[in-house]
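Students often ask why we bother encoding 3D structure as a string. The short answer is that it lets us treat folding as translation between two languages. Here is a chain of 105 residues written in the first language.
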Amino acid sequence: MDLFSAKVAHADLDSFIGKVDEMIINPLILFLFALAVVFFLYGVLEFILNQTNEEKKTNGKQHMIWGIIGITIMMSVWVILGILLNTLGISKDEINPERGTVHLR
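And here it is in the second language, the structure alphabet:
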């Protein structure tokens, strides 16, 4: 196996990983965040519309709490990653998954 084939295979793998991130992981994260917001709003509606039924009100409270927990976890990860990238001096333009490079300042 020559050196050129190894570079092409490596570039194809990096390109594949970049596409998986772009086409699958990012939409999945957005979907999960939207799902947490919908879950929270469903809990709010359940709580408001069932003022006379304590069991359904409690169920609505639980939906709101789990929705807030989901939103908080996703926002925390986003903030921690931002802080980590800023601390290391990495901007989004300096990360190139297709070439497999990260440029530090």
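Translate back mentally: The first helix runs from residue 3 to 49. Keep this in mind for the problem set.
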